[in-house]
């Protein structure tokens, strides 16, 4: 059996990253629905879960599996530019983890989610629902935060999610590159030697610990008053 050409399944997305993604997608869908319907008790709870999830992902970007780390996917401007040129010439190489443009949308999603959470914490619908920080900050912050949360951030986030899912579907249907299966099973198939992401029982337990720490931090931040 020739080793150099045999197909190898390599772990790219560790279980913590994949779990983060599926919980995030479900919670964000629930947040948009509960916000619009006005199920605010549920809305707040889901918001706190997303807060903890995003904090977890930020930490996991430093201590997680190889391809989940920011240094292994956040591109320098030069790399980003080279990737765009290669795309134009239809010569973009297959990426192992996130491609350089995908990496930008990952950062954009995490950033918008964080803004949505922070603004929600300071929002006040002037009927009966007030975020836990709205009593702690000046009234004009509450006004701005509420306006951002329910008019601007919400729309930006939904648009970026549509772009995100649209791009993933474009890769599958038009470029015949399946990004979805690896986000579920964790593995991609390569013909060459590729660095694998660590995804052991120990690293998964460690991730649980990190998440517990993030959840505790959120608990403290919610009950800050
Ligand atoms: C509210 C909905 C969603 C949000 C907020 C969201 C957010 C994200 C984020 C933050 C990442 C980066 C993953 C990481 O490195 O930690 C990601 C990656 C990914 N998401 Fe989603 N996602 C959503 C829905 C979906 C759906 C419905 C699909 C399936 C069609 C999907 C497919 C993917 C795939 C395939 C990747 C990996 C892309 C790559 O290979 O570079 N996402 N998503
Ligand atoms: C990613 C996380 C979140 C998303 C996507 C989200 C989304 C939404 C949406 C779609 C609405 C309805 C806006 C409208 O009336 O048109 C809303 C309202 C609201 N959300 Fe969130 N939310 C998030 C997190 C939070 C958090 C963490 C809190 C506070 C703990 C919060 C507090 C509120 C409040 C108080 C309102 C009512 C504001 C108003 O309509 O005047 N949200 N949110």
Bound molecules: protoporphyrin IX containing FE
The number of strands is 2
Straight-line distance between termini: 65 Å
Taken in chain order, the helices and strands follow as EHHHHHHEH
Find the CATH superfamily. Transmembrane di-heme cytochromes, Chain C
What's the pLDDT, averaged over the residues?
95
C-alpha geometry: globular
Quickly name the level 1 CATH class: Mainly Alpha
**Domains, number:** 1
Q: Structural class of the secondary elements?
A: mainly alpha
| Spans of at least 5 consecutive residues with low confidence | none
Radius of gyration: 20 Å
What would you say this structure looks like, in words?
The radius of gyration is 20 Å and the shape is globular. It has helices spanning 15-37, 40-63, 77-88, 100-121, 139-173, 180-185, 201-222, and strands at 8-11, 187-190. It has 225 residues and is mainly alpha-helical. Helices cover 64% and strands 4% of the residues. The chain has a single domain (8-222), classed as Fumarate Reductase Cytochrome B subunit (Up-down Bundle), CATH 1.20.950.20. The mean pLDDT is 95. The site of one protoporphyrin IX containing FE has 24 residues, from helix 1, helix 2, helix 4 and helix 5.
How would you summarize the topology of this molecule?
Layout: E1 8-11, H1 15-37, H2 40-63, H3 77-88, H4 100-121, H5 139-173, H6 180-185, E2 187-190, H7 201-222
Antiparallel strand pairs: 1-2
Helix pairs in contact: 1-2, 2-4, 2-7, 4-5
The structure holds protoporphyrin IX containing FE (2 copies).
């Amino acid at each position: 059996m020739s080793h150099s050409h045999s197909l190898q399944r390599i772990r790219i997305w560790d279980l913590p990253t994949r779990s983060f993604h599926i919980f995030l997608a479900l919670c964000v869908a629930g947040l948009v629905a509960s916000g619009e319907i006005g199920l605010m008790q549920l809305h707040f709870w889901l918001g706190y879960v997303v807060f903890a999830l995003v904090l977890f992902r930020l930490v996991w970007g430093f201590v997680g599996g190889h391809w989940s780390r920011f240094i292994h996917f956040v591109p320098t401007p030069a790399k980003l530019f080279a990737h765009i040129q290669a795309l134009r010439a239809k010569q973009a190489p297959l990426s192992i983890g996130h491609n350089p443009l995908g990496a930008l949308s990952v950062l954009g999603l995490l950033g918008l989610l964080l803004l949505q959470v922070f603004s929600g914490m300071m929002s006040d619908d002037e009927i009966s629902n007030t975020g836990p920080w709205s009593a702690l900050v000046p009234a004009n912050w509450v006004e701005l935060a509420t306006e951002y949360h329910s008019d601007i951030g919400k729309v930006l986030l939904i648009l970026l999610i549509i772009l995100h899912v649209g791009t993933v579907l474009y890769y599958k249907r038009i470029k015949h590159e399946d990004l979805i299966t690896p986000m579920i099973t964790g593995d991609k198939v390569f013909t060459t030697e590729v660095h694998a992401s660590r995804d052991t029982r120990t690293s998964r337990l460690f991730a649980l610990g990190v998440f517990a720490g993030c959840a505790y931090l959120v608990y403290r931040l919610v009950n800050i008053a």
